[in-house]
Design goal:
Length: 336
């Protein structure tokens, strides 16, 4: 707006000065100088036209600048609306993060959260008959879930109650000393929990030779492999495998494929048994058809014999009917 004002002043000031000079000359000119008066009138007319043109351009420029200012203000308002919506989303996300932190800080709520997550994944990836929830093993231990795989490898038990207190203390430790203490505590918790799962969740003859520990956090899974890779490998040698939501998703996909193969093999075996039964029925039908054919041939032979006997009887009857019975002489009858 300041640039427009300076431009207007730069245009109008020379015009005003020229107009003032012309009026002074007109006031002090001799009365008889008509030609000078005409020139001054023409100059005044041109100055009026120039001033009108400048005023028209000034109006157009002001209108264009006002339109651009309105468009800029509209875009600013739109961006402010987007920023306000993003701020609302950040506040909502912050509330959700705080809620999640409170949830993970409560041991019972954290356990329920892990169980719900595990159950949803099992229900989504496996058929209903392929797994059991809160299954009790023969040793009296109740596992969170049991995946019913055929032998081998056999049913696999899953635990979802991994202790997270030491890991949370490790992530929030303010100094190296507390961080080292939390790391040692985490190693102790891992070793104790793996020992507990290996002794209770692996039952020879009832389950597979291994079990799964479900970790409800990808960050926890990554930290355990990064900080305590040796303990994770030791747990695997004992048949206890730590899985995150991502790795469990892949494992359940492989288990579902195995269940599908087992079901297909069972259906193929049932189909082979039905085909064998059908083959037996076909052999039985062939024997019965052969017997029927033999009986039919014997019946046909009997019918031919009956027809031959009938023809003989008819022929004899015809000959008998053709014989003429004549009276014999008396002497012949006496002789006879």
């Amino acid at each position: 707006m300041d640039d427009i004002t300076d431009w207007v002043l730069a245009v109008l000031v020379p015009l005003a000065a020229a107009l003032a000079g012309a009026l002074l000359m007109l006031a002090f000119r001799p009365r008889g100088d008509a030609r000078l008066a005409e020139r001054l009138d023409a100059l005044a007319a041109r100055m009026d036209e120039a001033a009108a043109a400048q005023q028209d351009r000034l109006h157009r420029t002001l209108a264009e600048n006002a339109e651009r200012a309105q468009d800029s203000a509209r875009r600013i308002h739109e961006r402010l609306a987007v920023i306000d919506a993003a701020r609302g989303n950040l506040e909502a996300l912050s509330g959700q993060v705080n809620s999640l932190a409170a949830l993970l800080g409560n041991k019972q709520a954290r356990g329920a959260f892990g169980e719900v997550q595990l159950r949803d994944m099992l229900a989504d990836r496996l058929p209903a008959e392929g797994w059991a929830w809160q299954h009790t093993l023969a040793n009296g231990t109740r596992c969170d879930a049991l995946i019913r795989l055929p032998f081998p490898p056999g049913p696999i038990a899953i635990d979802s109650k991994f202790p997270l207190e030491a890991w949370q203390a490790l992530r929030t430790a303010p100094d190296d000393g507390m961080r080292e203490a939390a790391r040692k505590r985490l190693a102790t918790d891992i070793r104790r929990h793996v020992e507990d799962v290996a002794s209770k969740y692996v039952c020879p003859g009832e389950t597979a030779e291994g079990a799964l520990i479900f970790l409800p956090s990808e960050a926890l899974h990554a930290d355990l492999h990064a900080l305590h890779g040796g303990l994770v490998a030791e747990a695997a040698r004992r048949g206890v495998y730590l899985v995150s939501p991502g790795t469990l998703w892949a494992v359940l996909g492989a288990m579902r494929a195995l269940m599908r193969d087992v079901r297909l093999k069972a259906e193929a075996a049932a189909l082979r048994r039905e085909v064998a039964k059908l083959a037996e029925e076909a052999l039985r039908l062939d024997r019965r058809v052969a017997n029927l054919r033999r009986h039919h041939a014997e019946s046909q032979s009997d019918m031919d014999q009956i027809l031959l006997t009938t023809q003989k009887i008819l022929s004899t009857a015809a000959r008998i009917e053709a014989v003429e019975m004549e009276p014999q002489p008396a002497g012949r009858r006496a002789a006879e």
